[in-house]
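Re-running the complex after MR caught last week's input typo. The corrected sequence lines follow. Everything else is unchanged.
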Amino acid sequence: MSPTMKLNPNVIDLEYAVRGPIPQRAAEMAREGVRTIPCNIGNPQALGQKPLTFFRQVLSLVEEPDRVRRERALHALRAENPAALAGHDLVPADAIDYAAEILDKLPTGTGAYTESNGPRFVREAVARFIDARDDVATTGAPASDPDAIFLTNGASEAVRHGLDLLIGDKRDGIMIPIPQYPLYSATIHKLGGTQVDYYLSEEDDWAMTREAMETSLAGAQAKGIDVKAIVVINPGNPTGSILPDESIREVIDFAEKHSLVIMADEVYQENLYGDATFTSFARVLGNRDVTLLSFHSTSKGFYGECGKRGGYVEVRNPPKVEGSDVGFIDILLKLASVNLCSNVVGHLMTYLMVNRPKEGDESHALFTSERDAIIEALETKANRIREAFAQMDGMECYGRTGAMYLFPRIGKLPAGTGDFDYCMALLEKTGLCTVNGSGFGQVDGTHHLRIAFLPPTDLLEEVLPRWIEFHNRYVNG
Amino acid sequence: MSPTMKLNPNVIDLEYAVRGPIPQRAAEMAREGVRTIPCNIGNPQALGQKPLTFFRQVLSLVEEPDRVRRERALHALRAENPAALAGHDLVPADAIDYAAEILDKLPTGTGAYTESNGPRFVREAVARFIDARDDVATTGAPASDPDAIFLTNGASEAVRHGLDLLIGDKRDGIMIPIPQYPLYSATIHKLGGTQVDYYLSEEDDWAMTREAMETSLAGAQAKGIDVKAIVVINPGNPTGSILPDESIREVIDFAEKHSLVIMADEVYQENLYGDATFTSFARVLGNRDVTLLSFHSTSKGFYGECGKRGGYVEVRNPPKVEGSDVGFIDILLKLASVNLCSNVVGHLMTYLMVNRPKEGDESHALFTSERDAIIEALETKANRIREAFAQMDGMECYGRTGAMYLFPRIGKLPAGTGDFDYCMALLEKTGLCTVNGSGFGQVDGTHHLRIAFLPPTDLLEEVLPRWIEFHNRYVNG
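Corrected-run output:
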């Protein structure tokens, strides 16, 4: 018999619903041969979304550098003798040039550890991307600093680094929206800090209000909590809502007044549909001196390259560190250095995300059409699910469509049951794996679920009628 | 002015010498255009080591799945008309088949999140690798369990997960060898636990002794520390020493007697030279019921794929968890799930590491010759550096050659200086970046440095005479 051992209590009772009991039951069903539809998580390629051709062509070349030479030789062969390779697709010349350029900037390719914060040429490209996105040339806002950018294994690791710096013990509080993505609650709990909830206004399309923020902060301070930061997820996860510029300004005012760090989770900044536009916290911040950590990822957007685990955090206005001569950025660098560096393919995927084929490039047309098709399909699927909700008794879905999720309120449930029971029953009956609202936090007494609107259209058309049928039977049962 | 902020004290004073002030100075020199030789870290491809051709061919194909079809078409074209592609190298058919098999087992390729512990087919392959390595078919030891294997972003993350489970607060102690790899000291410190040192016997080729372990444990217990685990690094880092089977048995006896978890860092298990052989902790453990976490990585060995951040931990005999119905493995899985999964290219690199071209395969001969050339070159370079030590006044290097490092004792230094000063001066004078012994821990009053024996031979031949000259001048200066 192995001995009994006392483990870290903050790890034992960790909760992480997007990979919790419902997805675990789905995995069990899948092993038993039942078809399940994994909508518990924003994992587009697991539901058949194709990667962008150009991205993969470049990454494939970088992985085997000798191919740059060989693919160029095939182009030369075709140029010499057009019939020689008739019917064979060659890798486009611009993808080959792009890969050669990466290997020129990073001669060790994917094989060596890089700097702890990632290769500088990638951080420079990220900075240029941010500056272009936020129009710094015209707004006069400060340019992004490549040395304040840290490339990480997905945005998750970046968030963990940020929280790791801010949380010393349980008196340190972090404000998070309710509902929230459970990476925040789980990481705060694991690090032994205190989660300070502020509530979004569902009926007002999940808006943030100054009043909710002030109430939350005052409540925490009354309990002796030293609130360090406020987390904002925009576009929202799980809500899909998109913050208006005034709300962003309100958060900045609030953070400035109370000396809080803003942690802006902006990983869904390219998951916009219809006429929606994205405004970054950095853009609204401009020249104001409030500490901002903003997070981005290669896992979302139209690319959905989740397996690459690419991501970054950009720091603006790092705070002075109490009792230390070492700066915030240097401490973050030291923390990152303990694991040497994040994965290099993730770095390069990040580079591609911020440095795409340009107009006039050979690959531009295909890239653009693939991108547009993905975004259009996502919007169509979200709309189809919303239409289904309209046929479900008591189901209401607030907020416009953003990110990859819908988060409807289940207004009617059998007495004594909650959204966990509903989602588990939905899984058992239809194979559809969603996550119950309680996994994200919600106003007491309300019930929700989060669904990622990712399944292929035919699968969706097949499962939606079964969901409607299940729903109306279950809630009235 | 940004406000002053109190940060996590355990992060502020983190120390991590392999990326500390000396490597930082090297980076500064490199930016100023000075040639530096990064021997501070085991990063073979940064010093010109080539990746194994087969590994990269497969990874390149998996990255762009359509190439499986295209490369087969090129083979067909050549078969039809041998002159059509004269002079062009095609990807070997076995690499194409291998990639196709991976894509068959993991249809989402590198694009989707996988299970939190990594794709099952990779964990199964790791289990088979462990069983073959340890001859379980003949020894009767228990087979490795794929569900007790966790794929991680390098072994670093696996070590962090293990320590995260074991360390609740500063009364929780972890025994680590001195000298040690600073991942351990830094992570224990960051998690707020207590580092409990046990000393290796330098003159006895860095052997572990039962007495040193017992003394260390008793000392910690006398201070009220609850010692949870003992870390063993074999082959040693920074020492390069290789543990005899008796020492491994001694550690197991010790851990059993005191109910400790063994954390066996076995990432250098394929960095063996001459007639050295590797025995795993799992093999010596056999059927004994002691908790073992063993770590492995794609970053070391002859492959040196550091940028991939592939690694794993295998758990044997997980302990019962005090006060919890949830098992150790399930808690580890929950912890891993908060970051969704580690990077998929790292998973696949791990798969390749444990599942290589077999005798009879088309790629076997090239693979074997590349492997042998790398291992031979490493041994030759280690020997050349040892020869140089013999010409350095007071320099003594104990232990046989293992891992990627030599850790000589600097027996003579100018009064009032230490190994940090020596290594910094060596860097300034020769461009050679090493790490001072104090970064790993050492007996008080002794001085060492760690050098990774990785530079290309011509560079080494150029720098060694300059090092000898520097040394004899510096220590007698």
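None of the earlier attempt is carried over here. Chain A has 17 helices and 16 strands. The two ends of chain A are 48 Å apart (CA to CA).
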